[in-house]
Amino acid sequence: MTAPAPHPAAAGRRTGAAPTVDVHAHVLLPEIDALVAGLPGHAEARELDARRNGPAALAVNGPMVRERVPRMTDPAVRLAAMDAQGVDVQLVSPSPSHYHYWADEDTAGKVCRLANEATAAHCASAPGRLRGLGLVPLQHPQHMVSALDHALEQGLAGVEISSHAPGRELSDPAYEPFWARAAQTGAVVFLHPFGCTLDERLDRWYLSNTVGQPTENAVALSHLIFSGVLDRHPLKLIAAHGGGYLPTHIGRSDHAWSARSDAGAGCAQLPSSYLKRLYFDSLVHDPHVLRELVRVAGADRVLLGSDYPFDMGADDPVAALRAARLSEDDLDAVRGRNASALLDLTHA
């Protein structure tokens, strides 16, 4: 097979600059699908997902995912795609379809262990270019610390979570031990929603994704901010999809915090100040929004993200970043310098 032509952005590594790092890329783990198939609760979860997305979206999703399976399972295909994009390093996380927050304690434990081990094995095929994230059972807070520790033991950088679990928001006090352990260990926590609780209101025109994902990001981050979680725990938390609607509408949160005693009761500072304690990927699909994200969060808090290899991602994430017309220093920070420091790639 002919090697792909080098992408212009790949020059970063050759010139001694920080590598280009994509922090939002997924791996598909057929072992997990086989594990949960036919278990009580699985069919109901699939039915809920179908209602939330609607038949038209499902008709597109199926072929789209099947066509991309090699890109998510074969490391050689992944590395070739990275070369074509000019990406030196990917932070690989399980497809959010593997969360399975419906599962009982025993099944959830098996899912997380398998996800951690299989993701680590996938990344071990190219240890200088692939870093990985595992899973924790968000529906069983009492087991999240042990699942996080297991992920770190596999050599993973941290774990991926959704915006909520059934009946629990991320502000739930039951999650305090997990946040404390993540802060203590320096583990990366990648906040990537899967499913939106607006349910059938978003079941047409792929609103379940285009409106649902940024909504879930904004809700989840607001729970972390207003509850004081970020006051208590210095987390390495990356929000997918640029943090959704929150960064560009944070002024409304600041106003409520200042004007209302109920809004300001849980966190110590203006909500907008917490954006500088979080990390955000660059996947916002609009150069003007990306510039605003850099303005409100800081260029040191935005990381390159592609959502590889899904159709809602960026096929050329570096070109999407350049379209924002950032200063060269800010562009280099987002392109890879920030993620290199966050993931300690110099010692990987």
Could you please describe the fold and organization of this structure?
The chain has one domain (20-347): Metal-dependent hydrolases (TIM Barrel), CATH 3.20.20.140. Helix content is 45%, strand content 11%. The chain has 15 helices and ten strands. It has helices at 11-14, 30-36, 42-53, 55-73, 75-85, 105-124, 144-153, 176-185, 207-210, 212-226, 229-232, 250-259, 287-297, 317-322, 328-342; strands spanning 21-27, 89-94, 130-135, 158-161, 164-165, 168-169, 188-191, 236-239, 279-281, 302-303. It has an eight-stranded parallel beta sheet with strand order 1-2-3-4-7-8-9-10. It has a two-stranded antiparallel ribbon with strand order 5-6. Helix 13 (287-297) links the parallel strand 9 (279-281) and strand 10 (302-303). Helix 2 packs antiparallel against helix 6 (105-124). The longest helix is centred in the N-terminal third of the chain and has 20 residues, at 105-124.
Oligomer classification = single chain
The CATH architecture classification is Alpha-Beta Barrel
What is the mean pLDDT? Answer: 94
CATH class category name: Alpha Beta
Strand order of the largest sheet: 1-2-3-4-7-8-9-10
Features:
15 helices; hydrolase activity; two-stranded antiparallel sheet; TIM Barrel; hydrolase; alpha/beta; disordered N terminus; single chain; 348 residues; 11% strand
